[in-house]
Amino acid sequence: MAYTVPPLAYPYDALEPYIDARTMEIHHDKHHQAYVDKANAALEGTSLADASVEDVLRDLSAVPQDKLAAVKNNAGGHYNHTLFWESMGPGKGGEPSGELADAINAAFGSFEDFKGKMKEAGVNQFGSGWSWLVKSGGEVAVVPSANQDNPISDGKVPLLGVDVWEHAYYLTYQNRRPDYIDAWWNVVDWDVVAARLAAA
To answer: Confidence band (pLDDT; 50, 70, 90) for 173?
Structure first.
């Protein structure tokens, strides 16, 4: 079944002042749609045309070699952005609780230290990419990824990712990626992240 762009669960301006409405509109309606269109085109006629995006990305060795780059980039872009929209919401932010908070404290020492690791991975990602909180083995960890790569392809479970492509922040923050990451914490929906950890 062909991929589709999931509708946003909130209006374009719902994340202001942290993420502006125009960025949300272009990012969701144009960038994400382009990834979906190109992923569908690359997978059309292959044995993976009806596979879930998670299954495709978990085993990229099953993708025909001549389609691999297009699938990795565009199916990855679709999956990454779907997780991104779901991980944010108006009136969110704050800190996680329960099992998620315990896992973060065990791995990083404190929530603030975890935020520092996520920011460091995002700021130091050369060019375009992401900074991720993942479940790897029995614990959580922070990993970066380039372009539209996703940790699921390396056997990890993505729990939370911040998009550090310039199109995610440039209208408001220009080249100030650190400021964008600092602001982004105000819209993170920890209930969604906690649910992903519980499901993992």
So the answer is: very high
Count of beta carbons in the 10 Å neighbourhood of residue 19: 24
**Quick check: 36 and 78 in contact, CB under 8 A?**
yes
**CATH superfamily assigned to domain 98-199:** Iron/manganese superoxide dismutase, C-terminal domain (3.55.40.20)
At 90, the pLDDT band (50, 70, 90 cuts) reads: very high
Q: Where in the chain is the domain with CATH 1.10.287.990?
A: 20-86
Pairing of strands 129-136, 157-163: antiparallel
Residue with tokens 């700021």: 123
For the stretch 109-124, pLDDT in tens is: 999 999 999 999 999 9
Question: Which pLDDT does position 29 carry in this prediction?
Answer: 98
**Domain 20-86 bears CATH identifier 3.30.300.180:** no
Q: Angle, to 10 degrees, between the axis of helix 111-123 and the axis of helix 177-184?
A: 140
The rounded mean pLDDT for the chain is 97
- The predicted pLDDT at position 96 comes to 98
> Using alpha carbons only, how large is the chain's radius of gyration in Å?
16
pTM of the shown model: 0.97
DSSP string for 12-36? GGGGTTTS-HHHHHHIIIIIIHHHH
Task: Write out the H or E segment, with its range, that includes residue 134.
Answer: strand 129-136
